[in-house]
Amino acid sequence: MTTTRTQVCIIGGGPSGLLLSQILHRAGIDTLVLERQSRAYVLGRIRAGVLEGGTMQMLRDAGVGARMDTEGFLHDGTYVATRNRGFRVDFDALIGRQVMVYGQTEVTKDLYAARDAMDGRIVDEAADVAIQDAAGTPHVTYRRDGTEHRVDCDWIAGCDGFHGLSRQTIPADVLRTVERVYPFGWLGVLSRTAPAAPELIYANHDRGFALASMRNESLSRYYIQAPVDDPLEKWTDDAFWDELRRRLPSDVADAMETGPTIEKSLAPLRSFVAEPMRWNRLFLVGDAAHIVPPTGAKGLNLAVSDVHYLSDALIRHYGGDDEGIDSYSERALARVWKATRFSWWFTTLMHRFPEDGAFGQRMKQAEIDYLESSRAAQTVMAENYVGLPF
Ligand SMILES: Cc1cc2nc3c(=O)[nH]c(=O)nc-3n(C[C@H](O)[C@H](O)[C@H](O)COP(=O)(O)OP(=O)(O)OC[C@H]3O[C@@H](n4cnc5c(N)ncnc54)[C@H](O)[C@@H]3O)c2cc1C
Q: Residue 308 to residues 49, 121, 133, 301: CA-CA distances in angstroms?
């Protein structure tokens, strides 16, 4: 067994683990990241694509915002559609703020490049990672290439996503969880086609929700609400495009470019929150602690806001002030719950639920009509969509 030491051992090399390690390293705090997968696998994952203003600023402050600022697309608003027509919610006019379309895949690439440039320690393909004695003398063990390793540390940051081990380490009588599993999934495709519109279109339709999104001028990301147990083979490219066209306003659908898809996946939708987000010397960060349905584009942004609170807490700790450590869970969760509410609201408004019936669908249409006509309602949506302040 080899033994090494670091101040903060970070489990998970997704966006939250990498960003935390980058910020702490720049503040002179030593970290070691343990990632279960290969780097190629992590960099190949297609996930989120909309960054809040606070996320953009965090990336810039961490020295990883340059490519985002050159290659990303600032959006001043978004479209909401129902009954074959849409209207625009103008974030910039309502609250003077914007979002950035820049893929999580690119954010992760930039973070790996920055970590490499600083000789940040990242172990990929770390097997059997285990958290030991988080309530006493914390250390983490793992195996790589048949050798056992031990990392002694002051703190452990569980940045290992929803299926990771960190949350499971917290005793059942301490951890409280709440969950809502939605009765449908999102069938998503990526295609090398021009986006259907310059901004995202969220469509509520009798046949189910649809989202027209994008990564850049020649790469589009589309989603439709679909039964979560549908076999993927059922969704040929033609079947997907036909169904998407039915759900978008016809002027958009008629002009939309279609083509072979380069990625297709069906993801379940859930809201999930675990509390507290700290147990002794272990912190939970990002998807390890909470999941939101992607309708509000909050998953990645919440992971970044957790990193904001935790990096601030650890930097203050090494400066002699433990207030941030003691309040991390409470501060992070206050924002998590508000984003969970917004994601739940927007998901509920825009999707068809089995129990909706004619009345439920009319109520949703009435609420969308109200949203169209009310500056106050649009301001509430804009504030939440572009992200509440840290
Ligand atoms: C299919 C999919 C699509 C999504 N689409 C959107 C979207 O459109 N919009 C949006 O806002 N959000 C979306 N999300 C959510 C968003 O991607 C996540 O919120 C974000 O990735 C959270 O970052 P994270 O670093 O906390 O977790 P993750 O990105 O999950 O990273 C966790 C890392 O930990 C590693 N790990 C796990 N277990 C272990 C272990 N035992 N040992 C070591 N390492 C481990 C994993 O391999 C992974 O690299 C999507 C998520 C998924 C799964």
A: 19, 21, 26, 11
**Per-residue pLDDT tens digits for 368-390:** 999 999 999 999 999 999 999 99
Ligand 1: does its nearest atom lie under 6 Å from the Cβ of 16?
A: yes
Q: What is the mean pLDDT of the chain?
A: 97
Q: Which of 99, 104, 228, 269 to mutate to test the pocket of ligand 1 (most atoms within 8 A of CB)?
A: 104
Domain 2-73+99-178+270-346 CATH (choose: 3.20.20.10, 3.40.190.10, 3.50.50.60, 3.40.225.10): 3.50.50.60
Domain ranges of the chain: 2-73+99-178+270-346, 182-268+351-386
Ligand 1 contacts CB of residue 296 (under 6 A): no
pTM of the model: 0.96
Q: Which atom of ligand 1 is nearest to the CA of 164?
A: 38
- What is the assigned CATH class of domain 182-268+351-386? alpha beta
Over residues 50-107, the pLDDT tens digits come to 999 999 999 999 999 999 999 999 999 999 999 999 999 999 999 999 999 999 999 9
Question: Tens digits of per-residue pLDDT, 201-211?
Answer: 999 999 999 99
Q: Is the distance from the beta carbon of residue 294 to the nearest atom of ligand 1 less than 6 Å?
A: yes
The pLDDT score that the predictor gives to residue 205 is: 95
Q: What is the SS3 assignment for 330? A: helix
Written as one string, the DSSP assignment of 74-122 is EESEEEEEETTEEEEEEHHHHHS--EEE--HHHHHHHHHHHHHHTT-EE
Residue 259 CA to residue 239 CA, distance in Å, equals 12
Please give the DSSP secondary-structure letter assigned to residue 233.
Answer: G
Q: Does any ligand 1 atom lie closer than 6 A to the CB of residue 306?
A: no
